[in-house]
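#struct-queue
[09:14] JT: dropping the first one here, sequence first, then the structure tokens:
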Amino acid sequence: MKLTSMIAIYLLFWWGCLFLVLPFRLRSSAEPDVHVPGQAESAPPRFSVGRTMLWTTIVSAAVFAIFYVNYVNGWVTVDAFDLTRLRG
């Protein structure tokens, strides 16, 4: 696999993992102890972009590592999926 392909696939995993990581450790202002005056109740009072990016990078690196090891060893290939059953 070329380096550019690896980077492109990793960025796809990173972007997908971002949406998986976002809801974790999220507290809304609707909770009584974290309300900030003048802020919407649905907005997080202390959102940490750096922490979210760090966790996204860690999760996406793990997912990409599994993908790459599968790619190198050929554990699950396209032949493992029988698509002829979908035709009817």
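[09:21] JT: and here's the second one, same format:
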Amino acid sequence: MEWWVYMLFFFGGLGALLLLGLPVAFAFLLVNLVGAYAIWGGDIGLAQLVLSIDSSVSTFVLVPVPMFILMGTVMFHSGIAFKMIDVLDEWLGRIAGRLSILAVGAGALFATLTGVAMGSVAMLGSTLAPDMERRGYARSMSLGPILASGSLAIMIPPSALAVILASLGKFSIGKLLVGILLPGFLLAVVYVAYIVVRCTLQPSLAPPYDVAPAPLGRRLVNTLRYVVPPLSVIVVVIGTIFLGVATPTEAAAVGALLCFVLATAYRRLTWAVVKKAVGSATSLSVMVLIILTGSAAFGQLLSFSGVTPAITRLVTELAVEPLVILILMQVIVVFLGMFIEQTSIVMVTIPIFMPIVQALGWDPIWFGAILMLNLEMATISPPFGLSLFVMKGIAAPDTRMSDIYRAALPFVGLNIVVMAIMIVFPAIVLWLPGLMS
């Protein structure tokens, strides 16, 4: 058969199964079973599929995934993360758009710790958003920052998705983790600057209200006690990778251990916390690894059937600027983000995208950082971004989808601005990885 017939089967079949509501992992598995039987034939094809599934998860480079997730679940279920937010709230005082800034910080923290941006949107949308509305905040300044905070989730290490992307793309996990630091920081600064400027120019968007001032001494003590230690764990993880002292796997294991030590020091490590943290980390890790098994075999089938080489050849021979190809790739990611979550998008696109990246001579670290930013932006892009519907489900009953769209659009625009900066100035991504030992 021609390669395009296989392509229609693989992507058409996968899309149809997803639209029917089949879980991503099982959709991949079903397409892989039929594809392996058709390409390799009979028992040989099924045996090859089993070997591919086994080899995809029997790799040392994926160990950081459950470790990073465990770090987050320990901090989350022990309450350390919530205490950090309380201390941050003390510092904000009467600054313009105070609760909106807090929403960005809290959402980024929870999404980073749990690895699930939509979970962060659901939690903050049901807790912080009602308080913001009660205080007279416009919905553009209450719903928008909560939605946008998910964009920071995978751009602030440690990031399990960065490990998955780099391992599938066959490039340095450590360099990608370090490379997303500056873009993530830049995105956070842009969000906060937008909120402060907008609320200063239009105070009615976020009416100021009296807050009990916290003494400077208490704020400093609380910061040293409740903020510096958890942040130090993240600094240790990224610092050891950056200095070449530890591999991402070793750094992730040390980070997970330090989180347990920290929870013990705060006297928050109960048996119930351990069960919840380990249980959550296990379920999330198993979900990711099951999807990974299907994706690895999917990539092999695309290659054996000739789909990947043919698409790579067609794209590289197009009479257009490489920038046009890059933009088309990002548009595809945004489109997929309307239907499936980020990990699944990586599984579907990386087998096709990485050969094109290599053929065009792009730096994979730079491309990976841009892709990660776009993966989060896709979930808040109207009209069908998944986080938008999560917000609709937990927002006030009179909230319309048009309200949510208007709240999300400015932050989508800010994401595009930061992405454009990353494209024009690759050093923002590549400078720190270039300094690594």
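[09:30] RK: nice, looked through the second one.
[09:31] RK: The chain is about 80% helix and 0% strand.
[09:31] JT: good to know. Residues 35 and 301 are 7 Å apart (CA to CA).
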